[in-house]
Amino acid sequence: MEVSSVQMLYTHLIFCAVQRCRLADDLCRLSIKLTSFSRFGCPIVRISVSDTGVGSKLEEYQYLKYRNNAVLTNQWDGMISLATTSIYDSEIHNLNLNLKESNSAGRLTKLPSTAKNGAKFSGTEVSVSISKSLDDLLAEVTCFLQKMILVKIPKVVMELLAGGNDPLGSQIGSRILAIEGSSAYSPVESIKCLEVGFKDYVRKRYTAFSIGENLKVGTGVANSSGSSQGNSQVVEAVVIISEMSEQFPSSCIREQDMKTEVLYFKDFVPCSNTQSSVDALTSINWKNYGLALRSIADHDGCVMLEWENLPQYFHVHIAIHCYHRQVKQLVAQNSIADRNLARKAVKCALDDLKENNQGVLLSTRALKICDYAPDLAKTLARLILSSNDLNFQEECCSLLGVQSQEVNMDNVGNCIRDKIVSVIGLNDRNPQKHKDAPSFLFEDDYFQKEDLMDEEYQEDEEAYNSLDL
Q: What letter does residue 183 receive in the DSSP assignment?
């Protein structure tokens, strides 16, 4: 990992703290403290990340490299202060790590240890000093943690503290910012926590547009081993469709509405999207869900999907989380989820959303067929009501669920139309999951391919090549 910004630095420190907490057996506290002071007239913020998990190891920082660029040089001196102890240690070890030092032997400085006086506890505090405005850094860290709580880390309670000291050490009004959503250990499976957290995130983010409870949610999980045992790699995906209130002018929300920011998490911490996840999103045949992907762009690790044909007041939200069931090491690795796992998880979430919400995410073919439903329904209603056989009329209306006192052209036509659309939606499912589904209302050669079993991992090459990457 190369440090290219302050955000990447504190992200790595928080990542290591989370993994230490995951390795612990008990409930842990994770605290991020920002303390401001002045040095030679320049504002300095000390970032301290502390946890009560297992003790730290220097291997956690072996991938951190100091890049000598003008921006970073002006913000950070390359020094990391570390205080750590394990449950079996009799003292707290204090160390300084100088990432500017090219000689590995000279990078580490051991400072005098602190006696624990027989106390039994474990934990770590890592600190760095950054030349930056407290308000700017506080806003940045708060935004990061608001995304972090979406995954509701098991056994971890988080807090964010911000305050300051003047050069003489007198305290300035310190603030404690509660990280809403952090909670103690819950036996609920991870995907359920991500679903609940992501729904809360969407509601809060779009509260100005009054989406209320108009959320349709789909979840999907892909597992590298196909088993819940062992240190298998897991990719979870949550897809949410929200509908804005029509009282807001379309001009106010349309530009935002046509794009989707993909939130990506690795081992319960927000991180930049990997190329494999970008490839996975690109290779999905979105037309199967009635969507047309115009472009996919990566801006500083944030992936944005831009759509062509979303209905008005309609928005798509996507979150992807990759993690290992068991934590065996604390070092951040580059090998996250492979493309197929991420693709499968997102497709499962889309299929789940489509299956549980009638008429949502119909394929492009199904939508075209639905366009003919009103005319077809009117024709059938006209045939029924023009019949001279009253018993035939009564039986048809009874099958449609139309009461005798409600029999007229509009009611019968609307009922027939709804049933046609329902049948189209029922048959617009993944044929691999619905082998016993009834015959299709209209024949579609797309579902007649013999290689459907391989569809899960095939790319839509034409769609992939046409995107503006």
A: B
Residue 277's pLDDT is: 83
Alpha-carbon distance 7 to 300, whole Å? Answer: 11
Contact (Cβ atoms closer than 8 angstroms) between residue 285 and residue 463: yes
* Chain mean pLDDT for the chain: 78
Give the whole-number percent of the chain exceeding pLDDT 90. 26
Which residues of the chain fall below pLDDT 70?
A: 1-4, 62-63, 65-72, 104-106, 165-188, 206-213, 225-231, 244-257, 300-301, 327-337, 429-469
**Residue pLDDT, tens place only, 63-112:** 676 666 566 677 888 899 999 999 999 999 999 998 887 776 668 899 99
